[in-house]
Amino acid sequence: MHAIHSLRRLAVVLAAAGSACAYGFSGGGLPSHVRTVAVIPFSNETASPEITREFTDALREGLSKRLGLRDASEEKASAIARGTIVRYEMDVPVAYSADRQQATATRRRLQIVVDVELYDQTLGRTIWQKKGIVGEGEYSERFEAEGRKQAIGRIVNEVIEGAQSQW
């Protein structure tokens, strides 16, 4: 009976600890001295010039809103976000029209691949980095920008979650 009681108590403690981690009470997030960030326009190895600005803006907004970092110049920022947009593929058919006489795709998918580094300028070391982050988005024909926005949003989420998981 004592063993069952101990096991139940252990289960309750573990459940509480798991809940605390899930809600960010485990010490997660960036170092306390990182309060500002400079998002450097990413190198773009693709044939899509607009993606650099769209990704940079989305990452800057995500870091500000979700991590509370203020935008700063590269010289004054305590952290830098930088990287490379490695690949941008679009027009991968996903779903087709039911009309056999007209075989046009109605849904398409695009994929963006990015290498990202968050660098702590104060301590002179990398906070978090990951190569080959893949973001995908689906869109209706002639609405590629919608799919691009979805894919960028997924990459920004992964960067933010990665940065939060480091500490």
Question: Could you name the key traits of this structure?
Answer:
single chain; 167 residues; disordered N terminus; alpha/beta; elongated; Rossmann fold; 2 domains; 6-stranded mixed β-sheet
Overview of this structure, please?
The chain is of the alpha/beta class. It folds into 2 domains: 1-28; 31-164, Rossmann fold (3-Layer(aba) Sandwich). The protein is built from 3 helices and 6 strands, in the order αββαββββα. Strands 1, 2, 3, 4, 5 and 6 form a 6-stranded mixed beta sheet that branches. Strand 5 and strand 6 (125-140) form a beta hairpin. It is elongated. Residues 2-27 have low confidence and may be disordered.
Tell me the overall shape.
elongated
Main pleated sheet: 6 strands, mixed
Instruction: Report how far the terminal alpha carbons are from each other.
Output: 40 Å
Low-confidence stretches: 2-27
Number of domains: 2
* Radius of gyration, in angstroms, nearest whole number: 21 Å
Q: How many DSSP E strands?
A: 6
Quickly describe the structure:
By secondary structure, this protein is α/β, with parallel strands linked by helices.
